[in-house]
Amino acid sequence: MIARINRWATRQADVRIPPAQGRLLAQIDELGPARIGDLARADHCSQPTMTTQVQRLEERGWVGRVSDPADARAVLISLTDEGRTLLTDVRRERAEVLRPYVGALSDDQRTRLVDAVATLNDLLVAAAAAAEPSRTQEKENR
Length: 142
Hints:
Elements: H1 2-12, H2 19-31, H3 36-43, H4 47-59, E1 63-68, E2 71-79, H5 81-103, H6 107-141
Antiparallel strand pairs: 1-2
């Protein structure tokens, strides 16, 4: 259901970038500085496909490359200030599309929505914490 709402809001919003680029910016924001391979795994695509996507964002000045402090031969992809501002704008535009519908909810429905969002956030925090040991192990195996 969340994915459907997200897709609908993205289609309705007046954003200046393709949805795939917005999704990648959001993914980099969520993961923090990451290697191309890590981004490709997170997006379930090939490394060459991710390289192409990152190059497009880099050409527009929305992401940059920095040396990986753990491995000087590798680089990490991170958001630039311009990329972070763009992502904030995209998120704001999508929220604006939903605002009238949320505003039309009854007080009880809004309360239930707030509770549901809090529960979903708890779920994501728990899932991320459970996945963290495997990510740490992956990094140690490099």
